[in-house]
Amino acid sequence: xxxxxxxxxxxxxxxxxxxxxxxxxxxxxxxxxxxxxxxxxxxxxxxxxxxxxxxxxxxxxxxxxxxxxxxxxxxxxxxxxxxxxxxxxxxxxxxxxxxxxxxxxxxxxxxxxxxxxxxxxxxxxxxxxxxxxxxxxxxxxxxxxxxxxxxxxxxxxxxxxxxxxxxxxxxxxxxxxxxxxxxxxxxxxxxxxxxxxxxxxxxxxxxxxxxxxxxxxxxxxxxxxxxxxxxxxxxxxxxxxxxxxxxxxxxxxxxxxxxxxxxxxxxxxxxxxxxxxxxxxxxxxxxxxxxxxxxxxxxxxxxxxxxxxxxxxxxxxxxxxxxxxxxxxxxxxxxxxxxxxxxxxxxxxxxxxxxxxxxxxxx
Length: 363
Hints:
It is a single chain. The chain is α/β, with parallel strands linked by helices. 48% of the residues lie in helices and 12% in strands. The chain has helices spanning 2-7, 39-50, 69-77, 98-109, 129-134, 157-175, 191-196, 210-218, 241-255, 262-291, 295-323, 332-352; strands spanning 29-34, 58-65, 84-89, 114-119, 123-124, 144-146, 149-151, 186-190, 224-226, 234-236. The strands form two sheets. A seven-stranded mixed beta sheet has the order 3-2-1-4-8-6-9, sandwiched between helices. Helix 3 links the parallel strand 2 and strand 3 (84-89). Helix 9 (241-255) packs across helix 12.
């Protein structure tokens, strides 16, 4: 069980690049930023996007809500940049997700085939962020590029760990076959493919999960790249506890409507079962050996328990250092044990939530 537990760990599976750098150089890009009323994040992050060192043509489209005067003022203040363009979501829109409508309007306004979609609070790590992301976009072999987004250092440790833990499963599916979903608020895709597939057709009733549904619908086998470089890293500010819990419940509901997730769920459940079963057996055998004075049995069980904890910790540390995530390492073994309990609480919160909060079809 110790060996099985160590084998069944998302941190054991080494991260590797899905593609090599495109020999064609940077592709012309339309960057769509969705504000969702978060004007402070727009004020903080939009200048960082405008100052990106990108060799190809870059169009930055900011999608704001109609009547959001604060966002309009920010855009006017920065309107001297030839890269900047804005559009708005009308207040009269009904019977569909305003978030998905914002994406659709942004894509229609895009001049270029390659589109990078991100929330306004996604902060690029460096001026070379777009160059690093788009280096994976080979027109002949790639149709999606997933960009992991991490919480910043000020966020709670478990929030950071849970997002990384879940992201590793999404990244693993993308690298080893067909991408299933994403928990990052950033994604690169092709405008022509989006328009040919009629956008969000099939998930228009869902109010949330635009990034996850895009990946699930448009990812094709072995055609998804992952931007894991330090320069490509994006961060988001720490969320309030209530908002973070709502986001977890919304993600849970969205995943119920996604397709081809059988292998993803099987691997995830096997990993969690092996983790807890190994720890329970090691502790139980240690206690039994002590009670029956079978010291060799107790010593072997304790040694296996220590080995399991240490090896899993070393794998977690390797992954965190590889991805350059500022996280408190000492607490990660406890965070890993907390994941299943957190998932159970999310399931319970989803059960207790009015299901009309997840859909535009209220009847």
